[in-house]
Amino acid sequence: MDWPIYFKDKLIIGDEKSEIGIVTLWTQVTKIVEPIDKSLFSLAGQLYSKEGINFILRNVLANPNIRYLIVCGEERNGSGQALINFLEKGVDSENNVLETEYAQIHKEIPLEAIEAFRKNVKICNMIGNYNTADVVTALRSYQSSQSGLWGESQVFPEPKIEFDGVMPTDQSIFKVRRKFIGMAWLELLKLIMKFGTVRESFYGNNCRELFNIASVITDEDPDNFMMFPYFQITKEDIIDYLPKFMTGEKGTADYTYGERLWNFPHMGVDGQITNQIDDVIVDYLTRYPTDRAACATIFNITDHKAKTAPCMTFVQATNVDGKLDLTAYFRSHDIFGGWLLNAFGLRTLQKYIAGKLGWQIGNLTILSNCAHIYDNNWKLVQELIEKYGQGLDCASDPRGHVVISTDGEDIVAKHLSPNGKPIQEFRHNGKDEGATMKLYNKMVLAEVVSQVSHGLYVGSELQKAEIAIKEGKGYIQDRYLQ
């Protein structure tokens, strides 16, 4: 058997007869282990993730000669402590490492093999120690049993991919920034179907839900709404809906957003109402155009006892560089069934306020606290995503552009504003080991990029520039190496 069977090209191999393995966690294995006599250990490698515990286990079970693991180096995400917990505490009935989040042993590895590993392998906890001399001391202090293999060599099937369709995420604070309402809506559908967790709704059915999504609309023309082929509403539906936002009449409904905005009922005072748009927001910004108190509330304290309560609870108008920005907060938001009409209504309201003030219209921001899609719509939403949602968004990063070049042995990254004005410059010697990562870390600390796609692009170009310098090739951004 060709051993080690996993990540052989990334491990430092010593004496296969040695009973000691070295785990350097996030610290480059060469920095700690390269000066060490290879006869003192069997294998040495890193442990970036808790998932990697499985491959330590698999390699050792394939050659059960290792009885001692020295765990050292930098701990970043709990992988080292997870390994210690695995050896000291074991696993539950689902192979989850006890007292450890997000650490599971492959189900293809039986409990008998797991327990044999835990019984025969001991650990030396040196987490946080980067000193080679200390590791050598630990190596030399180990008392070898010299008793050979502690079990038979075992190789287990590869782990099956088990994915429930929900991508892992922190479940909070998602930002969608698009020119048009329809483009933002499609992105919201994609986010919730990809990251949303299934929960039971107030009505007894299920929904996929994400928390705290911020949708920013920059260019929608309220006089000529952009329609898209994947809409489930027509322009006539929008026209019919707008009076519910733009007038104080509620008809036979318990409430409308328009009624609460234009004729807000005072609690405990029959017949007394306030026009929060003209008499509060417009009036206040006319008198205090740069202040931050031009707000309207939609949710009344008595709504807690009502049969139905407004989902939109708050609206704020703000002067941002002479433009009227509008922000709305929804405590609960049906993204498939309600968000589109809500957004068109808010954009129309924004235009009205801006017109009264004589200002230009700015960004519309919609904050959806509990953003969900009900289960009866999942199939249709998925079909819309598959048909219309596969393209990449090519919008420019609002934080600007990065121009990358080489200057002698230096990689140079110039950060420009969206209008091309130089902001800052980053340099690093391209012949330095890990030059790309060191330069990119500087840029991350400086908050240069805001979009994942932009960050991936910049990273790939920096890496090309480093390769060009190290191999003596010419580098031009966006072109293949010469």
From TrEMBL:
Q: Which residues form the DUF4346 domain?
A: 397-478
Q: Does the keyword Flavoprotein apply?
A: no
Record-level Gene Ontology MF annotations = thymidylate synthase activity
The chain positions of domain Thymidylate synthase/dCMP hydroxymethylase read 248-387
Give the matching Pfam families. MtrA, PterinBD-DUF4346, Thymidylat_synt
Q: Which InterPro entries match?
A: MeTrfase_MtrA/MtxA, PterinBD-DUF4346, Thymidate_synth/dCMP_Mease, Thymidate_synth/dCMP_Mease_dom, Thymidate_synth/dCMP_Mease_sf
GO terms in the biological process aspect are:
dTMP biosynthetic process; methylation
Signal sequence range: none
Assigned keywords, A-Z:
Methyltransferase, Transferase
Q: One cellular component GO annotation, for this chain's record?
A: cytosol
Top-level taxon of origin: Bacteria
Q: Which PANTHER family match?
A: THYMIDYLATE SYNTHASE 1
Q: What is the protein name stated in its UniProt record?
A: Uncharacterized protein
This chain's source organism reads Candidatus Abawacabacteria bacterium RBG_16_42_10
